[in-house]
Amino acid sequence: MKTRRDFLQKLAAAGLALPVISSMAKGNTTSFLHSSPPYQGPVLKVAIMGLGSYGNRVAEAMQDCKKAKITGVISGTPSKIKDWQKKYAIPEKNCYNYTNFDAIKDNPDIDAVYVITPNALHREQVIRVAKAGKHVICEKPMALNAAEGQEMVDACKKANVKLLIGYRMHLEPKTLEIIRLRKEGKFGKILFFQGLSGFRIGDPGQWRLNKQLAGGGAMMDIGIYSVNGSRYMVGEEPVWVTAQETKTDPVKFKEGVDETIQFQLGFPSGAVASCLSTYSMNNLDSFFLDGEKGFAELKPATGYGPIEGRTSAGELNFPHVTHQTVQMDEMAEMILNGKQPVVSMDGLEGLKDMKIIDAIYQAVKTGKKVPLSL
Hints:
Structural class: alpha/beta
Strand order of the largest sheet: 14-13-12-11-7-10-9-8-15
Number of helices: 12
Largest sheet: 9 strands, mixed
Oligomer: single chain
Mean pLDDT: 93
Order of helices and strands: HHHEHEHEEHEHEHEHHEEEEEEEHHE
Shape: globular
Strand content: 15-25%
Number of strands: 15
Helix content: 25-40%
Low-confidence stretches: 13-33
């Protein structure tokens, strides 16, 4: 079965094996490897909800975290729970299923729950976690639509818990360097952004091709990277969207499950974005930002790494660290210490993407330019 996870893993394959060695060869990791003393501060105690492929990836990455630790699991599959208990030394009292996980309310071993389940389940599960008084990390897209996203934001606010969305690219060094350079005016006035996000999806029976579980097709899986990337690369919120859908396989991509969508965004400054989201073409993972004074490019732009980047001034060289390790350590700081990331990762950030995706689907349906107000 080929999914976005498989796609991103393939992008990582060439570089993950020797990221530290190759970075050391460039002479830029000595301080990174040897500078920090052992961490002795507070640790975020996390339960993972949904023990599928990405849940496993997050769990593996968290073994290298200093500020976050897996202390619980929530799953509908008892055999998976047993495997995780053994692998991560999780006590029986910290293991739950989808029926009884409200009981985490009384468990001091769990500070936060990372929801990594099909999109259609996010709303109910996030709201239940919030009502249990625990902080929530939710994988993207945060919901099926903006209305659901707003309910989740409101529920977490009412419960006085934090809601973060799994935007790991907001913490990726080359991405952040481009954002820094753009803010400093190195590219001049931003004119254009292009985002290409796509791969050929496999198993037609998987939940990502089920409208009831996924809420759509490629746009609700891989396409959200270009939606979100257009915003942090340009540095503005779009004010209109147009979009067109192409479907070559109506059997695999049934009604309401998009195969390929091209969409365009307009920004207040006059900058425009042209993006592609697809489940039927490989080799599509790139961002390009063009300004009056220069450009920036990421290719691959959103894979598990290493990310490759350059600007009109030259290559971007930073050591690769597993994204999910960085993400969970940084999210621990956000939850425990109120740290603010360069690019927001809260529920309101996720809600903005849902409003754009809603508008993209509306533009596809009507053929009209749809105004946006974020």
